[in-house]
Specification:
Number of helices: 18
CATH class: Mainly Alpha
CATH architecture: Up-down Bundle
Strand order of the largest sheet: 1-2-3
Distance between the termini: 33 Å
Order of helices and strands: EEHHHHHHHHHEHHHHHHHHH
Number of strands: 3
Radius of gyration: 21 Å
Helix content: over 70%
Structural class: mainly alpha
């Protein structure tokens, strides 16, 4: 039964995506409709979150900011976006997924309008730090979006659905960087407000789309204890570590790529902007493939090998830095983006499967309901902790360039971390990744 209200929300009282009949009759169409609207808001959110990774390319000598200042600026936005993911995760249960999507979309007007008022030479660094922090609103809505969409899809389709939702959001990083390139190429570095002229009306449009197209699921809204379930489970914290390595790398490199090219290789803003969008673009496009591969062969196996390839890419960047080979460096850095994106998809697919396996091995009175509750909350919490990796990436680059005028020490740290993540994935999940028969006749076997 459904109760369709006014703008306060449309509520779905009964939602059973694991029931094949229900899914075929009404579930698939409604889930997909919510998915596409969610992607639109999340896409714009990512663009707003990474605004200052683009704006720093416009900040020439007249702004008076050093490379260290600029790394601190983008680190601030990364930190606030990560921290906001925790309350944003709880907001889905408090307000409803559709209602919170609309609210979180409209909140993006705060950083965009505020930046339009102050974005010019002569504005103090402290004010710009505040603007970058406000951009964190855009980083928070990823957690609520993923938590919400997780509830709409059955186990066997979560990998692709979550991959599309996250990938469509992630690509917002590439889009705003590409628009930044276009503005610099056409108008030079003196007109960054053109970007805000695009995004302010876009924020309104995607929020309206969510209001008209999305639904709230009553069972999710009433489930306020799910976060406690997730917090008590060790898998939440192990997967948070792995997500630091995948999504933390993606967002951290997205913020830092242009600055690294300018600082280490002396590229102009236009030369840097002509390359920086490629990494986030390819990393975003490949993310659904990571989820799809995980659906087929298991997320743990994909994630384990993915981290090893990321370690190899870090080695390529180290070698290229030592030899001064710009093409090799770009190739290695783009490789990091690609496999961070692939790993984003595979790690997110692991989360619901891990909690499904937990209920089978430990025995819970209502196993599927417990797994759905805990995994939904865990997705938001893991995304919050994982996003802190973006802060760590930028702080590592900032310290590396400040002490050695090179990014090599930072890449060595990244290399070691990826190896650790690969070993943890194997020991905890991959060597136990064989399918476990589900206790429900309506659900697929569970393979992490």
């Amino acid at each position: 039964m459904e109760d369709r209200g006014t703008l306060r929300g449309r509520w779905i009282g009964h939602w059973e995506p694991e029931d094949p009949g229900f899914w075929a009759r009404v579930g698939r169409a409604r889930a997909n409709r919510n998915l596409w609207a969610s992607i639109a808001v999340e896409h714009v959110g990512f663009s707003v979150w990474t605004l200052y990774s683009v704006f720093v390319l416009f900040m020439g000598p007249e702004y008076g900011f050093s490379p260290a200042d600029k790394f601190l600026l983008v680190s601030t936005g990364s930190l606030v976006g990560a921290l906001l993911r925790i309350p944003y995760t709880f907001a889905v249960a408090r307000f409803g997924g559709r209602n919170w999507t609309v609210i979180s979309g409209l909140l993006l007007l705060i950083p965009t309008i505020a930046s339009a008022l102050v974005l010019q030479p002569g504005t103090s660094f402290g004010v710009f730090l505040l603007m970058a922090a406000l951009g964190g609103f855009g980083g928070g809505n990823f957690a609520s979006s993923m938590t919400n969409i997780n509830a709409f899809f059955p186990e066997g389709r979560k990998g692709l659905a979550l991959g599309l939702n996250a990938g469509g959001g992630n690509i917002g990083v590439a889009v705003i960087q590409l628009l930044g390139l276009l503005v610099i190429a056409v108008s030079g570095t003196g007109h960054p407000r053109i970007l805000l002229g695009v995004y302010i009306p876009l924020v309104v449009l995607v929020s309206l789309w969510a209001a008209l197209s999305m639904d709230n699921i009553s069972s999710v809204r009433n489930d306020t204890g799910a976060a406690r379930l997730a917090l008590r489970d060790r898998n939440t914290w192990i997967m948070s570590l792995l997500y630091i390595g995948t999504f933390g790398s993606f967002i951290g490199y997205s913020f830092a790529f242009g600055l690294v090219l300018q600082t280490q290789f002396g590229r102009t803003p236009l030369q840097a902007a002509a390359i920086t969008f490629l990494g986030p673009l390819l990393g975003s496009l490949i993310r659904p493939l990571g989820g799809s591969l995980a659906d087929k062969v298991g997320g743990a196996v994909v994630t384990q090998w993915n981290f090893l390839v990321m370690a190899v890419c870090a080695v390529v960047c180290i070698v290229a830095s030592g030899t001064g080979s710009f093409p090799l460096f770009v190739a290695g850095f783009i490789g990091l983006f690609l496999f961070a994106g692939l790993g984003n998809g595979s790690t997110y697919k692991m989360i619901p499967a891990i909690f499904r396996r937990t209920v089978i091995t430990e025995g819970h009175p209502d196993p599927l309901a417990w797994a759905r509750r805990a995994s939904g909350a865990a997705i938001g919490l893991i995304s919050a902790v994982g996003a802190l990796g973006g802060l760590l990436i930028n702080l590592a680059f900032r310290q590396s360039f400040a002490t050695t005028q090179s990014g090599v020490p930072a890449f060595w740290a990244f290399l070691g971390f990826y190896v650790v993540c690969s070993v943890v994935t194997y020991l905890v999940y991959a060597r136990r990744s064989a399918s476990v028969p589900s206790e429900s006749t309506q659900a697929a076997p569970v393979r992490v």
